[in-house]
Amino acid sequence: MVPGNPEDCTTAIKNIKKLYNTDIPIFGICLGHQLMGLATGAKTYKLKYGHRGPNHPVKDLKKDRVYITAQNHGYAIDDKTIDLSIAEVSHINLNDNTVEGLKYKNKEIYTVQFHPEACPGPRDTEYLFDEFLEKLK
């Protein structure tokens, strides 16, 4: 076991695989983003320094907008291991091009590596919760 390694969360990954096979909408944040990636076959890797602090620029590829985000993690999803028939990258970190978000195909599942609830900007990424809540209706 390596401290902070999401691959060590084997019970959670097994349970997330079960949830993935339902029609329940899911919004994974931070570790939830990594665990959903692992549950669907992606791999993670340790970042050299990690992403820490309230000032990380993240680009929403669909909206073509950049947001300043809060982050606190030491691992990232390896973009080369994402099964593109399952998910597509929705957000990237502009400091190092790491995966910051995934949108799962044919599912109401979205994940982001950053903390949209932390609001380092004036509620810049609050739209993610609005979109998720809309899917629950």
Question: Your description of this structure?
Answer:
The structure is a single chain. Strands 1-6-5-4-2-3 form a six-stranded mixed β-sheet, covered by helices on one side. Helix 1 crosses helix 2. It has a domain at 26-113: Rossmann fold, CATH 3.40.50. The chain is of the alpha+beta class and 137 residues long. The radius of gyration is 14 Å and the shape is globular. The chain is built from three helices and six strands; from the N terminus they run H-E-H-E-E-E-E-E-H. The model has no long low-confidence stretch (mean pLDDT 92).
- The name CATH uses for the topology of the domain at 26-113 is Rossmann fold
Shape, please? globular
| Name given to the CATH homologous superfamily of the domain at 26-113 | Class I glutamine amidotransferase (GATase) domain
Helical content stands at 10-25%
One letter per element, helices H and strands E, the order comes to: HEHEEEEEH
Low-confidence stretches: none
Structural class: alpha+beta
Strand order across the largest sheet: 1-6-5-4-2-3
N- to C-terminal separation?
Answer: 40 Å
Cα radius of gyration in angstroms: 14 Å
User: Which sheet architecture does the biggest sheet show?
Assistant: 6 strands, mixed
What's the mean pLDDT score? 92
- Strand count: 6
Q: Tally the helices: what do you get?
A: 3
CATH level 1 name of the domain at 26-113:
Alpha Beta
If classified by CATH, what would the architecture of the domain at 26-113 be?
3-Layer(aba) Sandwich
Fraction in beta strands: 35-45%
